[in-house]
Amino acid sequence: MNYSKLIILIALISVFFLGYIVIKDYSKTESAESFEQARSNILTDIDEILERAEESGEYKCCIEPACKMCFLGNWIFEDGKCDCDKFIAQGDLDNVCPECRHGIEQGECQSALDTCVVEI
Fold first, then answer.
1. N or C: which end of the chain has fewer CB within 10 A?
2. Cα–Cα distance, 49 to 80 (Å, whole number)
3. What are the pLDDT digits (tens) for 10-49?
4. Other CB atoms closer than 10 Å to residue 105's CB: what's the count?
């Protein structure tokens, strides 16, 4: 192998190795800062999305601020929509998500159907 090719090979390996270290350290810095900030950003984004969805009538939550449980698909509404307000009006409390139930118990009911009197 030619001496100049060996030097070029060593230089390339060094550059890749240093690049790997820089990227690895950068990702550590990002993740150390990001959990709290990312969580805050995501919750803010969800609140904004829910507010727009409520205004357009796509998200019919009964509490204010609106529940996130239905939006995240963690209840029976896997499409990300909340119809708890409708179920409260029908007296069908088995289909009201736990987050809405808790909100109603805490006096946070803002039902568009004026159905906040609920026995839970």
1. N
2. 11
3. 655 755 666 677 676 555 555 556 888 989 999 999 999 9
4. 11
H, E, C per residue of the chain = CCHHHHHHHHHHHHHHHHHHHHHHHHHHHHHHHHHHHHHHHHHHHHHHHHHHHHHCCCCCCCECCCCCCCCCCCCCCCCCCCCHHHHHHCCCHHHCCHHHHHHHHCCCECCCCCCCCCCC
Strand partners, 65: none
Asked if residue 63 lies in contact with residue 104, where contact means CB atoms within 8 angstroms, the answer is yes
pLDDT(54) > 90: no
